[in-house]
Task: inverse folding
């Protein structure tokens, strides 16, 4: 069976923030605002993988409502969900 997922992520541009896309910090006067690293590329890829294997979205697994607690960094997204997606794909 072939599974296809579609993901997206958006963040507002803001001063005094790092611009990280695909895990690479890009020198720029503006960065992306978010509770996490706001890496729109990796978050969109993660969202697509999640959608392909279980019909949920990234917010279901990584709560964005937790404003007082730092979100998982981008490597944690892939490590954590890599294990979950393997199990979900077999169900």
Result:
């Amino acid at each position: 069976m072939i599974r296809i997922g579609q993901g997206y992520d958006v963040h507002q541009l803001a001063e005094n923030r790092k611009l990280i896309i695909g895990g690479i910090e890009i020198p720029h006067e503006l960065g992306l605002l978010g509770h996490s690293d706001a890496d729109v590329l990796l978050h969109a890829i993660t969202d697509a993988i999640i959608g392909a294997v279980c019909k949920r979205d990234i917010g279901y697994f990584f709560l964005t409502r937790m404003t007082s607690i730092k979100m998982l960094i981008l490597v944690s997204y892939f490590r954590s969900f890599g294990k979950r997606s393997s199990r979900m794909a077999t169900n």
Summary: Residues 66-72 have pLDDT under 50 and may be disordered. Residues 74-89 form the longest helix (16 residues). The chain has three helices and four strands. The chain has one domain: 13-84.
